[in-house]
Amino acid sequence: MALSSPGIGSNLDVNSIVSQLMALERRPLTALDTKEARFQARLSAYGSLKGALSAFQSAAASLASPARFSAAKASIADASVLTASAVSTAVAGSHSIEVTALAQAHKLTSTPFTNTTSTVGSGTLTIQFGSYSGETFTANGDSPAATITINSSDNSLAAIRDAINQAKAGVTASLVNDGSGYRLVMASDKTGLSNALRISITDDDGNHTNTEGLSQLVHIGTTSGTKNMTQTVAAQNAALTVDGIAVSKASNTVTDVIQGVTLTILKTNAGSATTLSVAKDTAGIKSAVDGFAKAYNDLNKLLVDVSKYDPANKQASILTGDATVRSVQSRLRNLLNTSLTTAGGGLATLSDAGIGFQADGTLKVDATKLNAVLADPTKDLATLFAAVGKPSDSLVSFAGSTADTKNGSYAVSISQLAARGSAVGGVPAGLTIVSGSNDTLNLTVDGVAASIALSAGTYTAATLAAELQSKINGATGYASAGIAVTVSQSGGVLTVASNRYGSASTVSLTGGNSLADMFGTPVVTAGLDVAGSIGGSTAAGSGQKLTAASGDANGLALNVIGGNTGDRGSVQYARGFAYELDKLVGAMLENDGLVDSRMDGINASIKGISSRREALELRMVTIERRFRAQFTALDTLIASMTTTSNFLQQQLANLPKSGGSQ
User: Fold this and answer.
1) Residue 352: how many CA atoms within 13 Å on its side-chain side?
2) pLDDT band at 2, cuts 50/70/90?
3) The domain that contains 161 carries what CATH number?
């Protein structure tokens, strides 16, 4: 008969005995838990290390760009008159500025219409920008013209406003109700005398200048009766005096008066000049250097904390003796203790700039020494931190490098300067353009074809060049492709040149009824890429950029913007500390880098422990089942023996006693 409860047949506490036996059997599981906890602690420590390395890399990257060290700042004594900002090319100094006029955008308004849905007319509306001298208009060659089609099915006042705005032609259209009706207002998006509006109309009713149909919006300003829109705000240049020199500019944002300084004019201050001060932005540099030192010290503290050993308490840290931690420490310290030999900036070590190691392994910035370096024109801090090339030729500039570029001094030789593709007229251009007779030109610039229509009129060679440049640059598809041209004239002969340098730069005049009259048989010249060598090895040219393709200079890129062919001096190149640290730490943090590889190994060990634990848990179930089966068998045996014992006792008790009566 089976027993329903362990121990009932033997009076043994079977559950307690089995529990104690299983506790002994589970000791390997406890050991695995302890081992996994250690692995998890190490994984957490590596996670903290990874975060500290990432923060240090960011601090190093902020010093790895040459632009960080050439930044300048500008301030205005009276910021209500104008504001100022500066870039690296700005020269320190002070300037007196007086503003007598603000630039204005040209605005035109139509005659009033009954309501916004009033029908105006259909046809095409061509917008050009330029300047007026009396009734003569000269196109602004730098502002592309735009032609907008107004369909007969959508030619209301509001629809024309929307069509103009959707064309993004450099004009903003709006409707204003002045009490007598709704007027269409057209305003140039750019200020200045050279951005006045010329609105020419091709009216579907056949009359392009009368006061009916779409012609109600004409404003060509060449003869009387062609100004159906009224000027409400005249185009005007900003007028200012800088250090006693009169300056006139088309915009209230002035970028080319003081090199490297942008002025934003807010109001006039006639008779009360204010002062502009320009200085090197040393505060930003010092802040970045301090941030670099702090990030390193934070990283160093973490490395020490996770790997130190406490001899007094004989207590090791979680990563004491860890090879990866030692590798990180040694690589960083070795790099920071090296000396640059080809930087060319008068600085070779961090200590030269007041950045030195302390006895405890931390970095400290000597502010006095750093300030002295920043104030010394013979010292270039950029060469100490960033990857910098310093050409000896002023018409050669550093354009970049790669991880393959090695520190060194490299000779530069130019065998061919970059050139733009162009087409030069074979005859002086005819200066009278007649609609339908000699007003179209077909051309291909940088591989993209276009067809343009010139405005009828009598021009000078200069104004015709401006008209042609405006229309070409406004051609469909050119602006979106980054294609533009410059049209110039010499002795009445026109030249159309692509604004792009290099072998991809081409200009081809392919047809149109004005081709023969304006250009005769043009002479076409293809663009050229710069060619030459860097460090004695042939370099690859693309436009004005020359890039070393082999040797120690491999990847070193230079912009050659002019000068002569032949020997062009040398370029000193060095990868500074911040650049090298950015690359070094970046490699450590890559997916298969030093830190992640170690973390992957720890995760693999944790996964292995998990698998072993699962196997042991299954074994524990089997062992406990065996223990319980054994004790059940023992319990049954003891219960059987007890039953037999009780039976024998009963039988013995019933036997006759010896010596009793018969």
Assistant:
1) 22
2) very low
3) 3.30.70
Given this model, what pLDDT does residue 455 score?
87
Is 632 domain-assigned?
yes
Domain around 243: 72-102+238-280
Angle of CA points 600, 604, 608, to nearest 5°: 170
Whether 309 shows a pLDDT value over 80: the answer reads: no
pLDDT band at 11, cuts 50/70/90?
low
CA distances (Å), origin 533, targets 117, 394, 419, 489: 67, 17, 18, 35
Question: Is 433 domain-assigned?
Answer: yes
Interacting residues of 604 by C-beta distance below 8 A, sequence separation 6+: none
Question: Domain of 461: which CATH number?
Answer: 2.60.40
Q: What is the pTM of this model?
A: 0.66
* Residues 429 and 488 reside in one and the same domain: yes
In the chain, the amino acid numbered 448 is V
| Calpha distance 253→474 (Å, rounded) | 24
How far lies 29's CA from each of 40, 77, 613, 624, 626, in Å? 16, 76, 6, 15, 19
Question: Is 659 within the bounds of a domain?
Answer: no
- The CA distances from residue 592 to 326, 561, 571, 595, in Å, are 18, 42, 36, 8
Indicate whether 287 and 275 sit together in one domain.
no
* Cβ neighbours for 303, distance < 8 A, ≥ 6 positions apart: 49, 52, 325, 328, 329
Instruction: Assess whether 346 and 441 both reside in one domain.
Output: no
Q: Distance between CA 329 and CA 327 in Å, rounded? A: 5
Using alpha carbons, list the distances in angstroms from residue 50 to 62, 298, 530.
19, 12, 45
Summarize pLDDT for 332-376 with one digit per residue, the tens.
Answer: 999 998 887 766 678 888 999 999 999 888 999 999 999 999 888
Nearest to 389 by CA among 526, 569, 241: 569
Q: How far apart are CA 83 and CA 265, in angstroms?
A: 7
- Going by C-alpha positions, the residue among 265, 350, 300, 346 that lies closest to residue 76 is 265
Same domain, 441 and 489: yes
Q: Note the pLDDT of residue 654.
A: 81
Residue 490, domain member (yes or no): yes
Mean predicted confidence (pLDDT) in 457-477: 90
pLDDT at 628: 79
| Number of folded domains that form the chain | 6
